[in-house]
Automatic annotation (TrEMBL):
Coiled coil: none
A GO MF term: poly(ADP-ribose) glycohydrolase activity
Upper taxonomic lineage: Eukaryota, Metazoa, Ecdysozoa, Arthropoda, Hexapoda
Listed name of the protein: PARG helical domain-containing protein
InterPro entries noted in UniProt: PARG_helical (IPR048362), Poly_GlycHdrlase (IPR007724)
Residues in PARG helical domain copies: 2-113
Record PANTHER family: POLY ADP-RIBOSE GLYCOHYDROLASE, POLY(ADP-RIBOSE) GLYCOHYDROLASE
Length: 115
C-alpha cells in the first residue's frame, strides 16, 4: 500500500504534472504517429518528452478511439493503449500495485526533468 506521505506527494506534485504532460500532447506531438504493422519495416523516433506525454494520456485513459474492438476499426488489431485494464484488473493485486508504483516513479523522474 502506498504510504500516506507517498500518496500526498502523488496527488500534490506528480498527478498535476501528469495532467500537464497530457494536455501538452498537441504541442509536443505535432503530427500523427504512424501505426506500425506486422510484416512491415518501419521505425519512428520520439523524444523522452513525447513518450512521457503519450504515457500520461494512456495513464489518464484519454485515447478512447484506440480501444475499440470493432473489427472494421483500424485499431482493432492493436492492443489497448489506455491503462484502464490495469486499473480495473481483478486479482494479482500485488502485481498491479507494483506496476503502478513503477509508473508513478517514472512520472516522478520525468516530471522532475520537465520543471
Amino acid at each position: 500500500t502506498l504510504e500516506e506521505e507517498e500518496s500526498d506527494y502523488f496527488f500534490a506534485q506528480v498527478l498535476p504534472q501528469i495532467i500537464k504532460l497530457a494536455l501538452s500532447l498537441p504541442e509536443i506531438v505535432t503530427g500523427a504517429i504512424p501505426l506500425l504493422r506486422k510484416h512491415k519495416t518501419h521505425s519512428i523516433t520520439l523524444s523522452q518528452k513525447q513518450i512521457a506525454s503519450l504515457l500520461a494520456n494512456a495513464f489518464l485513459c484519454t485515447f478512447p478511439r484506440r480501444n475499440t474492438a470493432k473489427s472494421l476499426s483500424e485499431y482493432s488489431s492493436f492492443p489497448d493503449i489506455n491503462f484502464n485494464r490495469l486499473f480495473s484488473a481483478v486479482g494479482r493485486q500485488d502485481n498491479i500495485q507494483e506496476k503502478l508504483k513503477c509508473l508513478i516513479n517514472y512520472f516522478r523522474r520525468v516530471c522532475s526533468k520537465c520543471k
